[in-house]
Write a structure and sequence with these properties.
The protein has 525 residues and is of the alpha/beta class. 58% of the residues lie in helices and 8% in strands. It has helices at 2-19, 28-40, 64-82, 89-119, 121-133, 136-140, 146-162, 173-190, 195-207, 213-239, 246-256, 270-280, 283-293, 295-312, 326-340, 346-375, 379-390, 403-407, 424-429, 444-448, 498-501, and strands at residues 398-401, 435-437, 455-459, 481-495, 511-524. The chain is globular. 42% of the residues are buried.
Length: 525
């Protein structure tokens, strides 16, 4: 049963990778850093070719996660190549994401084992089912956000703190020290907000006798020094700036200077009323039952709740900043679910089982909907894949990628007709080199005036507007460009009340997905 539960969660994560293989702009730094480490190497001569010097982003990010992912993926990539399972750079991107998904899924499997030991097998089964039927975590664990790299050590820390029998009140001092070291490293190197999760945890274990202040200073201080030294040495080299501590820059930019507010602000309550409910789905009400029924759950969730409260004081809020507490809320929800279905009276237990089954059905329905949307949300990746296929026999191609294309899937790994290559099959197959141009803020006039540009993957104006279902290419007039193909993307939902009146068989046609033209492939005449 244990192996089956682990396989179920891993298969769920892998399924999301295969259903939505492309990426978005928020994943691009770590994705392209992984690409550059794989393709160019890490020698000083290779660094000028790295993508981050051209597209640095608002603040510098660490290379440490990308280096680790590239190195652990390398033998897997070559093995897949030998077995005929990977032959292009697109396959490389897919395998890298599968590797990251596997790393994250492995920590969930460890966490599930600690749940079984601490709360029983029934709770661990519900934990797996709740985790698998949610959308956000299984969908995002394969994506190269810094938060998904940080989720690995935070889950390991939670495993260490929970991995004990039900009769043992506190984790061993060794496990507490290891968890503090992991979270300290994560906060210093990967994501600074994890420090707000670490602080209440430390206070909790000081009060409950799980750690002494001298040992805390020793473990925390040593880990901090090593982590700061590591990230400064590594990232100063890759960014060619000395000294550089990326997460310190992030704190200064986002918190001290308050510039994160430029990406939008939310009210104090947003994490509790919007982001956590959307990630947790049915786990939200079940976790309340877990809190009410088990003192161990209250001790588990207290640092997580304080962490979310602390982050709520910052104006800019995103779900990914609090994703680390989702597994803990799922543990609470699983414990609450077990408490609900453990009623003594048979008829009450039967009703409770039906109620729990209904919650799982809601999870599945919402996850199916979110997954459908996501599959249609990467027009840039779809457009570039089509383009590569359409002109596979051409040698004189210079294509400009619009901002929307670059932001919705047109990653470096999809530039299959130009180097660098890592797989031997790629080297044998590619005898010509295309130019993929991502220069920003170019108008249709300037692109037309550049004779070297043979093709453009351009944005369709107002593609989300239901009245603009067909791409308007009037800006590309003058007879110099020919529309070759258009790529649609999710634009919303259309409700048809008349479908219900047509009979039960038409009920599922009441709500239909609206897809409008998002990108157009143009060829110079």
């Amino acid at each position: 049963m244990s192996v089956l539960l682990d396989a179920l969660f891993l298969a769920t994560c892998w399924g999301h990778v295969l259903l939505a293989p492309f990426t978005k702009v928020e994943e691009s730094f770590n994705l392209h850093a992984t690409h550059d480490v794989l393709m160019y190497g890490i020698t000083p001569e290779a660094l000028p070719k790295y993508d981050h010097f051209t597209f640095p982003g608002a603040v510098p990010r660490t290379f440490i996660g990308s280096i680790f992912l590239a190195w652990i993926s390398t033998p897997i990539l070559h093995l897949a190549n030998l077995l005929g399972l990977a032959s292009t750079k697109v396959d490389v991107q897919l395998i890298i994401r599968l590797v990251l998904a596997t790393l994250n899924a492995s920590t969930f499997c460890l966490l599930r084992r600690s749940v079984a030991r601490r709360f029983g097998n029934g709770t661990s089964i519900l934990f797996t089912l709740l985790s698998c039927t949610q959308f956000h975590v299984p969908f995002w664990v394969s994506r190269t956000l810094p938060n998904m790299f940080a989720l690995i050590p935070t889950n390991l820390a939670s495993y260490l703190l929970m991995n004990r029998s039900a009769k043992v009140a506190r984790p061993s001092q060794r496990n507490v020290h290891a968890a503090i070291a992991l979270l300290t490293f994560t906060a210093v190197v990967l994501r600074a907000e994890v420090a707000l999760f670490l602080a209440p945890l430390i206070l909790q274990y000081i009060l409950y006798g799980g750690v002494t202040i001298p040992n805390l200073i020793k473990v925390g201080g040593l880990t901090t020094l090593v982590s700061v030294a590591t990230t400064t040495l590594v990232d100063s080299y890759f960014w060619q700036k000395w000294p550089l501590w990326p997460e310190f820059h992030s704190i200064m930019f986002n918190v001290v200077e308050g510039k994160s507010a430029e990406w939008g602000t939310s009210p104090f309550r947003a994490y509790f009323t919007t982001h956590l409910p959307k990630m947790l789905l049915s786990s939200a009400p079940l976790s309340i039952a877990g809190l009410a029924s088990d003192a161990r759950i209250r001790g588990l969730l207290l640092p997580a709740i304080l962490f979310v409260l602390a982050l709520s004081s910052l104006a800019h809020k995103e779900w990914r900043f609090v994703v680390y507490v989702v597994p803990l809320f799922n543990v609470a929800a699983a414990r609450g679910g077990m408490w609900i279905i453990s009623r003594k009276r048979r008829w009450v237990r039967y009703i409770c089982v039906l109620f729990l089954s209904g919650l799982f059905a809601i999870n599945l329905g919402l996850t199916y909907t979110f997954t459908r949307i996501s599959m249609e949300n990467y027009p840039g990746g779809e457009a570039l894949m089509r383009f590569n296929t359409l002109y596979a026999g051409r040698k004189d191609v210079h294509v400009h990628l619009s901002n929307l294309a670059a932001q919705t899937g047109a990653s470096l790994f999809l530039q299959t007709h130009t180097g660098p290559y890592i797989l031997s099959t790629d080297l044998r197959k590619r005898s010509h080199t295309w130019t993929y141009d991502k220069t920003e803020n170019l108008t249709s006039i300037s692109l037309t005036a550049s004779p070297e540009i043979t093709h453009v993957i351009a944005e369709c104006p107002d593609f989300a507007n239901e009245k603009n279902k067909n791409c308007d290419t009037s800006a590309w007039a003058d007879g110099q460009w020919e529309k070759v193909d258009t790529v649609k993307a999710f634009a919303g939902w259309a409700v048809s009340p008349t479908a219900f009146a047509s009979g039960l068989l038409q009920v599922f046609d009441m709500i239909t997905m609206v897809k409008n033209d998002a990108l157009v492939i143009l060829e110079r005449k």
